[in-house]
Amino acid sequence: MKKQTRFMIILAVIMTFLISGCAKKSSQKAPETGAAYREDVYMYDYAADTMMDMEYGYAAEESSAAYSKAVPAAANGGAEGQKRMIQKSASINIQVMDPLDAADKLIALTEQSGGFVVSSSSSQDYYSGDIYLPRANLTIRVPAEKLNDTLAFIEGLTTDSAKYVSNKRVYGVDITSEYVDTNSRLTSLQKTLDKLYEILDTAENAEEALEVYTEISRVESDIEVYKGQIKYMEESVALSSIDVTISSIRPAPIQTVSKWNIGDVFKDAFESLLDGGKSVIEAVIYFIIVVIPILILIAIPVVLIVLIIRKVIRNRKEKGRQMNSDEKNEDPLTVVKKN
Fold it and tell me: Is residue 273 part of a domain?
């Protein structure tokens, strides 16, 4: 009986993997059957409220019809006409006169529409001088069916949407294949869990019951993981995310035209004269107090050196003259004797 119980547990596990593998294989082959279907990012045209594929450029109705033909029943868990699961997101930048007031209005609309604020912050942008302009940044989530209405409301916060709305982007991700595959795996695990409970009822001793219970715990843990993934995907499809940047409209520079007045001209000229005279007087004072003493200190040793050199030269000249005069005044007889 013990071997039979183990065999049944192993058989249940093998069946789980086989069912999961078949579901995954069929979901992976689905895109090959139709070129219109692909698990990728799709762009939305907000003005026309149409969804365009980034690569193929199909409109929403054409793509949806092609998808229903392309994806067989095996890929959507046996349910014909599986609704396409699209995660929608958007981002937009606007300029308003009062960003903080506009942010409060957007938060109020988000809560009224059944959504919520993911994050909200405010900052200041430098303009000029001591002037800083406020800025608000928000990330909100609103029901997917109210995404376009919310974007229209955000654009309505500006005085000129054509001028003060920028970087508006609406995009989406098709997670239909992943959603279907996860549901298929969950279904197969639930069937395996039912089978394990049947085996647990036939266990004859504690050891067999413990082995079955261990496998039940593992399967239940996997089931909870898949349930969490499915819940997250459903919530991400039901609620769209919007990143909003609200900045201030920069004021136009103020231009003033000054009037000509002859009295002001005379006043400016007189002030210039006073400033010039003041500068001259200050220069003279600095020259007398600062420059002259420095020049005196430099000139004293120079003058002393020059005087010493002149005295030495003078002494040499006088000595030379004296020697010449002595030679001329000698007696001729003395000169002859010397010779």
Answer: no
Q: How far is CA 126 from the centre of its chain?
A: 18
One domain for residues 171 and 46: yes
Query: Considering its fold, how many domains does the chain have in total?
Result: 2
Q: How far apart are CA 103 and CA 80, in angstroms?
A: 44
Torsion of CA 69, 75, 77, 81, to 10 degrees: -20
Verify that 236 and 293 share a domain, yes or no.
no
In a domain, 78, yes or no: yes
- Burial of residue 295 (CB within 10 Å: 0-12, 13-18, 19+) is exposed
Give the tens place of pLDDT for each residue, 60-93: 333 333 333 333 333 444 444 568 888 999 999 9
Q: pLDDT-derived band of residue 197, with 50, 70 and 90 as boundaries?
A: confident
Question: Are 58 and 102 part of one and the same domain?
Answer: yes
